[in-house]
Write a structure and sequence with these properties.
Number of helices: 4
CATH class: Alpha Beta
Distance between the termini: 65 Å
Number of strands: 7
CATH superfamily: Nucleoside Triphosphate Pyrophosphohydrolase
Helix content: 25-40%
CATH topology: Nucleoside Triphosphate Pyrophosphohydrolase
Structural class: alpha+beta
Largest sheet: 7 strands, mixed
Shape: elongated
Strand content: 25-35%
Radius of gyration: 21 Å
Amino acid sequence: MLGKDSRTFQEVEIISKTFYINFMYKKPSVAVDIIIEYPEEDSIILIKRKNPPYGWALPGGFIEYGESAEEAALREAKEETNLDINLICQFHCYSESRRDPRGHTISIVYVAKGEGKAKAMDDAKEIGFFKEDNLPGEIAFDHKRILNHYFGMKKFLKSFSLSFSSINSIFS
């Protein structure tokens, strides 16, 4: 006979499944975004997304199983912009749970230099070259915030005659 505070096997099973779904199965996705500095245009590159959520965005995407964040950044940059990139530094990690309307996504953001002929490919409907003073109005996700942080940090580093590549050499 079960005691007053005891649970039935079915109740325990339901609790276990709920725990699995909420804490083991539902995990944030991990992505990369790349701030690609494109020297030929003295600008950064944004892509206009083909798929929802629509708008302009940093090139990037989800890390595939077995792939490092750096490998994902190289792959996503090539797939979306046709550019080979040289990663300069890891800029920041953005992890707010509501930053992506499709679900909780953690993004590791890199700063990179782009090489080659930029063109819209894969998930990119269009490609654009932008500076701080001419960013498009409709920017997807929290990428406007990321860009504000990037331009602010760029000015800060410049005030000390430093660049993003200086960060990498300090921590290497």
